[in-house]
Amino acid sequence: MRLRTSQDRLKIEHSIIDGVREILEEVLAQNPEIRSIIPGVIRKVRDARGKVKIRVTVPVQNGWKAIALSAGARQELFISTEWSKEDLEKALGRAGAILG
């Protein structure tokens, strides 16, 4: 499958759960320090209702892994940045995500 890009920084290999794409595009528009965001696999969960929640979980080689919850599903997000966890969480909050 060909890798499509949005603004050359949001890599889209497969779909993105409802409400998350808008937040990711807003984060990238406001923060040039974030090199890229790569959404991962989507899985169904029962407790993902209401507004989009994003939890930054663990550091990875070039940034952070996060979990987005919305519309009855969870999706991994791989965020490439040199920022600290706290800085990334602040940027996600400014873009409209509920942190949790």
Q: What would your notes on this structure say?
A:
Strands 3-6-5-4-7 form a five-stranded mixed sheet, covered by helices on one side. By secondary structure, it is of the alpha+beta class. The protein is built from two helices and seven strands; from the N terminus they run E-E-H-E-E-E-E-H-E. The radius of gyration is 12 Å and the shape is globular. The mean pLDDT is 89. The protein has helices at residues 20-30, 85-94, and strands at 4-6, 10-12, 36-44, 53-60, 63-70, 73-80, 98-99. A hairpin with a 2-residue loop joins strand 5 and strand 6.
How many DSSP H or I helices? 2
Please describe the biggest sheet, giving its number of strands, its sense, and whether it closes into a barrel. 5 strands, mixed
The radius of gyration over CA amounts to 12 Å
- Identify low-pLDDT runs: none
Q: For the largest beta sheet, what order do the strands appear in spatially?
A: 3-6-5-4-7
Order of helices and strands: EEHEEEEHE
Mean pLDDT: 89
Shape: globular
Percentage of residues assigned to helices? 10-25%
The secondary structure category is alpha+beta
The protein's oligomeric status is: single chain
Distance between the termini: 33 Å
Number of strands: 7
Strand content: 35-45%
Topology:
Elements: E1 4-6, E2 10-12, H1 20-30, E3 36-44, E4 53-60, E5 63-70, E6 73-80, H2 85-94, E7 98-99
Parallel strand pairs: 4-7
Antiparallel strand pairs: 1-2, 3-6, 4-5, 5-6
